[in-house]
Specification:
This protein has 236 residues and is α+β, with helices and mostly antiparallel strands. The chain is built from five helices and twelve strands. Strands 4-5-8-9-10-12 form a six-stranded antiparallel beta sheet. Strands 1-2-3 form a three-stranded antiparallel beta sheet, with no helix packed on it. Strands 7-6-11 form a three-stranded mixed beta sheet.
Length: 236
């Protein structure tokens, strides 16, 4: 079997060492072996095992891209790890865009609507969205609601990004860009089987009733996501 690694760029790389895993019946450990050479023309070989230091592990993690830059966290940020960024946004009024291919939805295109408070999660290039029954910062035990939007799967909250112009990074500075990208894209289709709203007139009936109103979003029509913020944050 052949294996290939594409690291990009033209930088010259040289072999420096190897991490070897030693495993017994009851325990195991990992050791660093520096590459040595018997002479200028000799084939390289691995030297004796050396214990790993905290500095070495930190350096390796930074080289693998898992280092988080130092950032001042704004109040709306809920979770920040090397893999995940989660924040919340209060209830607000925003313009929405709908697919021109749906005759009923087309009448709502470009109109302003009230929106519930939302919880956003970004990992890599993926975006999840949930709603909140109250417009206040949630805690770990806060029960989340289904985001009442097409393109967002009710079961897990994952967004089908379609025409979204999502940012290239998941840093703190990209929070506003993610939100704008979400609302400036077209809402085109139901994604998943879960009910997005309990409004008697259904999804489009709900948004038709909210066109241009200055009242807050009627949170009584949100459906339960059957998930707390803690579960939302830790689910892979």
């Amino acid at each position: 079997m052949n294996a290939y690694v594409d690291i990009g760029g033209s930088e010259a790389l040289s072999l420096k060492g190897a991490l070897l895993v030693y495993q017994g019946k009851q325990r195991g450990f990992v050791a660093w072996h520096e590459v040595r050479s018997a002479s200028d023309q000799g084939a390289p070989f691995l030297g004796e095992a050396q214990a790993l230091t905290i500095e070495f592990v930190h350096g390796l993690a930074q080289g693998l891209g898992s280092r988080i830059p130092i950032e001042i966290l704004p109040e709306n940020v809920l979770v920040r790890t090397p893999e995940v960024l989660i924040w919340w946004s209060p209830a607000d009024h925003r313009i929405m865009f709908f697919s021109q291919n749906d005759q009923d939805a087309r009448r709502l295109n470009g109109k302003r609507f009230p929106h519930p408070a939302l919880v956003w999660k970004v990992s890599g290039r993926d975006l999840w969205v949930r709603a909140l029954a109250e417009s206040k910062r949630p805690t770990a035990g806060t029960k989340l609601m289904t985001a009442p939007y097409w393109n967002v799967a009710g079961e897990e909250g994952l967004t089908c990004q379609g025409s979204m112009r999502s940012p290239d990074n998941a840093g703190i500075g990209a929070i506003d860009v993610w939100e704008r990208a979400f609302f400036q894209s077209e809402f085109t289709h139901l994604n998943g089987a879960s009910r997005l709203t309990s409004y008697p007139g259904g999804f489009l009936g709900l948004w038709e009733s909210l066109v241009g109103t200055r009242k807050p979003f009627p949170v009584e029509y949100l459906t339960s996501a059957k998930q707390t913020l803690q579960e939302f944050a830790t689910r892979r």
